[in-house]
Specification:
This protein is an alpha+beta fold. The protein is 29% helix and 20% strand. The chain is built from 6 helices and 10 strands; from the N terminus they run H-H-E-E-E-E-H-E-E-E-H-E-E-H-E-H. The protein has helices spanning 2-27, 43-49, 102-113, 154-160, 193-198, 218-231, and strands at 64-68, 77-80, 86-89, 93-96, 123-128, 133-138, 144-147, 173-178, 185-190, 211-214. It has a 5-stranded mixed beta sheet with strand order 7-6-10-8-9, with helices on both faces. It has a 3-stranded antiparallel beta sheet with strand order 2-1-5, covered by helices on one side. Strands 3-4 form a two-stranded antiparallel sheet. A hairpin with a 3-residue loop joins strand 3 and strand 4 (93-96). It is elongated, with a radius of gyration of 24 Å. It starts with a helix and ends in a 14-residue tail after the last helix.
Length: 245
């Protein structure tokens, strides 16, 4: 069991590394990229991109599958999807299953065993889902991964991560969602200030592996610049008396 745990940990750290690199690209100082605001037209695409366990789910590494042959029980097996997205199926061998639905995998196994079995029937179920964290970073109290749960919203994730810091800019929270592959993403900004201040309804629910990044406010960035370039570099500035008119 330890190798499987280590594989999950490695995937988690890899995802956190991807989070760091992506956020630095989105909000980097050298050549900042403007992330478009979320619109109603974006919602269907974001909904389709999210791999929700409670909706049409596509198999991921770390999932545990039970493959059942109703008329050939000797071929039944329970197998965990490896980090490379593959499994070793009975009498079939190694096949790539990550990204498939259970129905698509059933069809694939039927095709692969039809030369050995007469009219094979295959039923694939997911016995255990892999870890599916959400990542919250930036100006929150406790940045890091959170467990996914059905119906969690961006603001609920921020609250679970310790809430907004005083330096946060809740009007421009960045949502990043994988879109079909680990190298393709959808990034949009969400105005959570409207929800916090006016009670506006949040526009969407989070999906597994979503990234929420809370940027610094303009005032916080100005204060940071002053501290880095003036106060910290010229120690006596912080101790200078304030002139009284």
């Amino acid at each position: 069991m330890r190798p499987r745990h280590d594989a999950r940990q490695n995937r988690r750290w890899a995802a956190l590394g991807a989070l760091t690199a992506l956020v630095l690209t989105l909000v980097g100082c050298a050549a900042p990229i403007t992330v478009p605001s979320l619109t109603a037209e974006d919602l269907p695409r974001l909904q389709a991109a999210g791999n929700f366990p409670e909706h049409v789910y596509r198999i991921e590494p770390g999932d545990t599958l039970f493959i059942r042959y109703p008329f050939h029980p000797e071929m039944d097996q329970e197998v965990t999807v490896e980090p490379d997205g593959r499994i070793t199926a009975t009498r079939v061998g190694g096949i790539s299953v990550a990204g498939l639905t259970t129905g698509e995998l059933e069809k694939l196994l039927k095709d692969r065993t039809s030369d050995r079995l007469r009219d094979p029937e295959v039923v694939v179920t997911i016995r255990h889902f892999s870890d599916k964290p959400i990542y919250v970073g930036g100006e929150v109290g406790k940045p890091g991964p959170l467990p996914y749960r059905k119906g969690i919203t961006p603001l609920q994730a921020v609250i679970a991560a310790g809430g907004f810091k005083d330096t946060a800019h809740p009007e421009s929270v960045i949502l990043v969602r994988a879109a079909g592959s680990e190298k393709s993403f959808i990034a949009r900004t969400i105005n959570l200030g409207e929800t916090v201040n006016d009670g506006a309804r949040e526009p969407l629910y989070l999906a597994p592996h979503d990234i929420i990044f809370v940027p610094r406010s303009a005032i916080a960035n100005a204060n940071l610049w002053v501290r880095q370039h003036i106060t910290d570099l010229i120690p006596f500035v912080g101790r200078m008396p304030i002139p009284v008119p």
